[in-house]
Design a protein that fits this description.
By secondary structure, the protein is mainly α. It contains 16 helices and no strands. α2 runs antiparallel to α9 and α3 packs antiparallel against α12. The radius of gyration is 20 Å and the shape is globular.
Length: 364
């Protein structure tokens, strides 16, 4: 793919095997994940109507930019960070490359930690291990992180091919789970009650703050769009289906996170934005072990995209490194970063302030 001077060769037409469905599934999988669910729960503090409006507007605008960036990858066959070289130069392109490596390893670690909570809960239910959030609960989290790291290794073992396979399989399970979750939520609480619910004044999030949270979340994918579209030989796959897939994943999973968080607040008569991660919500709504297993799968599909983006950026930083060893490298680093919350916080508040908000949850 590259010579010693760092000149990147485009993906050859014969190697471009990603179909319309592959591109759509990739971006559904990228957004149908724990982080998107958690984002939906965070913006629940703005109320259902304001949060839903911010979600739709921000998603449509953000992913127009994703489609445009994806088209660049299709036209050139080059990874995203190589496309920054005309503007930044060969050495200057290291700056956006470092940013991409940091942000996508960070997102992979965040998703891994949330999924590890699900695994810890499963171990508690099946084996009687200390529950998440109780003394000794770190043991389940550590095992969960190690299990997730093995799943991630499997998902990137063959590079682009294994990422494509994990998205094809995983996205079907994700869709089944979200339909099931939607039915369960509305069995607990009516849509009218959800629309009428308002958080306590001291917890309320403004519409502008909700858009700020969503923009920071959505726009990160734009910087990775070409890393996937370079493997397709169809312009509509790169643009239309990337746009459609990203919005389906965002709207569906953020919406269910939003609705489930509000439904839980109504059911429990208590609202805490820090408890909006899918593992906590699934447990409170009584969805059982199967739901927690699907949460683990969603983390795997999302992190396949995160790790692919980080690995592609690494190949722009070290010109002699090809994509597959770069993927192994970033997966190892992401696993190590996933352990960081264990040293700096005490569960269950480990997700506290993850998206830049220091929530005051002292009141009802």
């Amino acid at each position: 793919m590259r010579n010693e001077l760092g000149h990147v060769r485009p993906v050859a037409p014969a190697a471009r095997q990603m179909t319309n469905w592959d591109m759509c599934a990739t971006w559904i999988g990228a957004n149908a994940n724990n982080g998107t669910w958690y984002i939906g729960g965070v913006i629940a503090a703005a109320g259902m109507l304001t949060a839903s409006t911010a979600l739709v507007v921000c998603g449509l605008v953000s992913y127009v930019l994703l489609a445009l960036a994806s088209y660049m990858g299709y036209r050139t066959g080059l990874p995203a960070m190589a496309l920054t070289r005309p503007a930044f130069g060969l050495r200057g392109s290291l700056v956006p490359s470092v940013i991409n490596v940091v942000q996508f390893i960070g997102w992979a670690a965040a998703n891994t930690f949330i999924a590890a909570i699900s695994i810890a809960t499963i171990l508690h239910d099946l084996l009687g291990w200390p529950a998440y959030g109780t003394p000794g609960g770190h043991r389940g989290l550590i095992v969960g992180i190690l299990v997730m790291s093995m799943l991630h290794m499997a998902s990137i073992a063959l590079g682009e091919r294994s990422v494509r396979m994990i998205e094809r399989v995983g996205i079907v399970l994700v869709m089944v789970f979200v339909v099931w979750e939607s039915i369960v939520v509305f069995q607990h609480v009516s849509l009218g009650a959800i629309m009428a619910w308002r958080p306590a004044t001291h917890l309320r999030l403004t519409g502008g703050a909700a858009i700020d949270v969503l923009a920071a979340f959505n726009l990160a994918w734009v910087t990775a769009a070409a890393d996937f579209s370079r493997f397709t030989n169809k312009p509509h796959a790169a643009t239309t289906w990337s746009f459609v897939g990203a919005n389906i994943g965002l709207f569906w999973f953020a919406f269910i996170g939003l609705v489930a968080t509000i439904a839980t607040a109504i059911t429990m008569n208590h609202f805490d934005p820090n408890d909006s991660d899918p593992s906590t919500i699934a447990t409170k709504l009584g969805l059982g072990v199967l739901a927690l297993l699907v949460i683990v799968i969603t983390s795997t599909t999302a992190n396949a995209v995160n790790l692919m983006a980080a690995g592609s950026a690494v190949t722009n930083m070290w010109h002699r490194m090809t994509l597959r060893p770069a993927l192994w490298l970033v997966t190892g680093v992401a696993t190590l970063v996933s352990f960081v919350p264990l040293f700096f916080c005490h569960v269950p508040g480990c997700l506290h302030g993850l998206f830049g908000h220091d929530w005051d949850v002292s009141g009802p």
